[in-house]
Amino acid sequence: MNKQPVSRELFDEVMVPNYAPGKVIPVRGEGSRVWDQEEREFIDLAGGIAVTCLGHSHPGLVSALMEQAEKIWHLSNVMTNEPALRLAKTLCDLTFAERVFFANSGAEANEAAFKLARRYAWQHTGPEKNEIIAFKNAFHGRTLFTVSVGGQPKYLEGFEPAPGGIQHADFNDLESVKKLISKDRTCAVVVEPIQGEGGVMPADEDFLKGLRKLCDEHNALLVFDEVQSGVGRTGHLYAYQMYGVTPDILSTAKSLGGGFPVAAMLTTTKIAESFVVGTHGSTYGGNALACAVAQRVVDTVSQGDILKGVAARSDKLRKGMMDIGERYGVFSEVRGAGLLLGCVMSDQWQGKAKEFLAAGIEEGVMVLIAGPNVIRLAPSLIIPEPDLDEALTRFEAAVKRVVGQ
Question: For the modification N6-(pyridoxal phosphate)lysine, which residues carry it (predicted)?
Answer without folding.
Answer: 254
